[in-house]
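Treating backbone geometry as a discrete language has practical consequences that deserve illustration. In the encoding step, the backbone of a single protein was reduced to a row of integers, each denoting a local shape. The amino acid sequence and the backbone structure tokens for this protein are reproduced below.
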Amino acid sequence: MKENNPNKDRLKYLLFVPTMVILVSMTIVPFVFSLLTSLTNYKATEPDNWRFIGLDNFTRALMDKDIQSSFVNTLVYVAGAVSLEFVLGILIALLLNRKMRGITVIRMLLLLPMMATPVAVGLMWRWLLNTDFGIINYYLSAWFEITGPNWLGEYALAMPVVILVDVWQWTPFVVLSLLAGLQSLSDDPIEAASMDGASSWQMFWNITLPQLKSIILVVLLIRIIDAFKSFDVVWTLTNGGPGVSTELLSLRVYRVAFKFWETGYASAISWLFLIIVMLITSQFIRFLYKETPK
């Protein structure tokens, strides 16, 4: 019989200590601190002048019209970006799933937008969309004799442009995820349906799409979470403007925390934001487990 070595068992647990210390210090401690801060009127500029105010920050956040406006903007941004990314992603994935020359090169090129840092993407598109010397307005004028609009300065255009920039950067992620799912599917059901005279649309809708349902839900879940916490691209593109037309909730939290220095209030907004995202994602996870074959 194999005997247990007490010293070896003790060593195994000791090896976990550095990881647990880092985990606690980098995640749990900030969470607890932000929760406690949200219950006070703490300001970073007045660290010694604070008091416990209970849920007043949360009540204030729920009644704040600026927060409501930012939340609506966030919902529009997330819904628009993720919907377009999914539609384009599945269409491009179906196209790239076919055998054709140069398909490997095309797949590699798809990675480029996703590999760029969000700040670089925002700055690049800000220059491209510049009203006076942006290349997009230049070619609109040179080729079509059209005076290009102020893409990032007009209230009606700013949010669609921000959404399209996010779509440009993150559609490749959706494409690659769905393409991997398509290539993992068995060809037997498709071949059987083809022999029975099913059309391409019928095979996609009744065979391919149901088999991809779990992968689709995971991809949508990841993109929704990521889109909800978007900050870099929007900040570098529009800084939340014009006015507050593209001010997402993440930008609003930043302004409250680092412009008005209301740290306690910013923490309360962040916790409300976290709760909302958790409620939305929990529904996706519940649906995912419901649809996953046992």
Notes: The first helix runs from residue 6 to 38. The two ends are 38 Å apart (CA to CA). The chain is about 75% helix and 0% strand. The chain has one domain: 56-291.
